[in-house]
Amino acid sequence: MYVNVIGAGLAGCEAAWQIAQRGIKVRLFEMKPSKKTPAHKSDYFCELICSNSLKAARVESAAGLLKEEMRRIGSLLMEAADKCSVPAGGALAVDRDLFSGYVTEKILSNELIEFIGDEVKEIPSDAVTVIASGPLTSDGLADRIAEICDSPLHFFDAAAPIVTAESIDMSCAFTASRYDKGGDDAYINCPMNKDEYEAFHQALITAERAPRHDVDVMNPKVYEGCMPVEILAQRGLDTLRFGPMKPVGLRDPRTGHRPWAVLQLRTENSEKTMYNLVGFQTNLKFPEQKRVFGMIPALRDAEYVRYGVMHRNTFLNSPKLLSADYSMKNRPELFFAGQMTGVEGYMESASSGMIAGINAAARVLRREGFILPVQTMIGALADYAANSQTSDFQPMGANFGILPPLDEHIRDKKLRAAAYAQRSLDILDNILKEDSFYHTVNKE
């Protein structure tokens, strides 16, 4: 008796862990390290390809609430994130290598999980199966998925560059968090005056982009949250100043004033030797990234550990195909998890893996399924994937807008968010008290 899990990304590892924690053997398939996509660099599982930020840490935020729900259910990914965190102001960010390494070690050392390093080209029919092959699903498996579903939709993700700390010109930068939240060393801020910014903006919108045969690089269909910075800049001169280069909440100690525009750099590792250009996902050619981003004074001599890249992503028309337990409506022994289900974000993907894994285990053991109420963030995301009524289904991240309204109207935004969080956690705690099958702790 075992369950197949295809893919050792965030969703797949979380699914495998949840299944094993319930005493069921897992066959975990992953094509790395023998085969990688252009976006993958590491041999570890759970590689973070884009940002190293897992979004807001506060429980009173939608992203923070999602993570707290996962902690209470017994998430391996949240255990890893908490142990491998790096300073990031009000966000939970991780040292991506330590994070991936931690999860990889946990998975490989679990006696109930058999790792099979091979590319899967056919959907197994020998056991309950969770497909968590991720947004970069290989062509062979993607074709098989397309055969049993409507044709998958394609869109594109972009990743931001990473630079070395020692190459940042700190005479043109300063450390601070916006509104002094999260410590003074959480971010390196790279300010620009009006003339510098406008010259940079013009260079950015006219820079040469990397060609792709499978995407219109001038108007790619991408997540709004991963929109290439050059596409954002096309929308208007001040678009970046109200987005990734917003100066609000920051004061340049050299001038005593708020800068005209600011690029923030967030630490990539616990040693603080590498920094990510926050919000600067890009599809510019590599020499163009060095030239254009070098117009930001603090980055004029920056050394790039990784240039930004754009890569293909895939997701299903989930409301037609999936139930709220992430199983296929017409093939209940087959589950999907991760971004391909229409959840947007690292921990959103992991949460779908958690629910798919628990339900795959329940299916094997002939137990009742685990579908959380829509008042919880995990339950609301699953419900959106299964029951969204929109004619143009698009990926969704954690947000309070997908939760049912509160019984009472609360005008204050912070108090309203706190009330949403408290309602969710109270409901979840009551569910977990009723049956320990749905809550696990690390037994190792």
Index terms:
Elongation Factor Tu (Ef-tu), domain 3, 5-stranded parallel sheet, 2 domains, alpha/beta, 16 strands, 444 residues, FAD/NAD(P)-binding domain
What this model shows, in words?
The chain has helices at residues 10-20, 62-73, 76-83, 96-108, 139-148, 194-206, 229-234, 286-293, 318-321, 346-364, 377-387, 413-434, and strands at 2-6, 25-29, 53-56, 85-86, 91-94, 113-116, 129-131, 153-158, 162-164, 174-175, 187-192, 261-267, 274-277, 304-306, 310-315, 334-336. The strands form four sheets. The chain has a six-stranded antiparallel beta sheet with strand order 10-11-12-13-9-14. A five-stranded parallel beta sheet has the order 6-2-1-7-16, covered by helices on one side. The chain is built from twelve helices and 16 strands. The longest helix is centred in the C-terminal third of the chain and has 22 residues, at 413-434. With 444 residues, the chain is of the alpha/beta class. The protein has two domains: 2-152 and 316-438, 3-Layer(bba) Sandwich (FAD/NAD(P)-binding domain); 162-311, Elongation Factor Tu (Ef-tu), domain 3. Helix 1 links the parallel strand 1 and strand 2. The relative contact order is 0.17. Helix 1 (10-20) packs parallel to helix 10 (346-364), helix 2 packs parallel to helix 10 (346-364) and helix 2 runs parallel beside helix 12 (413-434).
